[in-house]
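Risk register update: the risk of archive-format incompatibility is retired. Evidence:
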Amino acid sequence: MNTDKLGKTMFFRGLNEDEIHTALKALNSHEKEYAKGEAVLLAGNVTNEMGLVLEGGVTIESNDMWGNRTILSHVGPAEFFAEAYALLPDEPLMVDVFASENCRILFLNIGSLMHMENSQPWVFKLIRNLLMISTHKNIVLSGRSFNTAPKSARGRIMAYLNSVSLKKKSVEFDIPFDRQQMADYLNLDRTALSKELGKMRDEGIIEFRKNHFRIISAE
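Archived output:
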């Protein structure tokens, strides 16, 4: 386990190497690899573990019994998922987590933090960092509500690309979704999404190739 890389993640921020090793052991950490499309966590189950993506990425999805899928967010390297459920181990998951590409994940039993003596500096630091992670997740979910608020397909596409551009601080960037995933994230039909993207490209608003985009001008 590369403690230098872990120390740069939000969860382990502020911990020294010895504290990270102690935390990994105390939280029963273990790694697991998943192939693209494989289920990591499924709705209806419970968990006491938070996942840290080491390589690759996962999508957080809402899938109903009629086959409708809504992608709520994408979690990439050094990012976390399921932290809220891990702290509430009796709460069934309301979402599914799937590998969006081949990935490697570190699982941490953060539910056990609630039963540890918080006078230990590393325990206090981890609880503080969990609060920051939770706050960041709220911002991410709020961002999706802004992206899906416009009624038109173009409005949703522009809102999403604008939000990614602001985050990346560039008008040229890669998005973490393929076309179907992008459609599911924006609550759009894939055909309607592709058609609108083509129109925007023809009008000189954007350029794109697969998941690489460049914003050329405002409408």
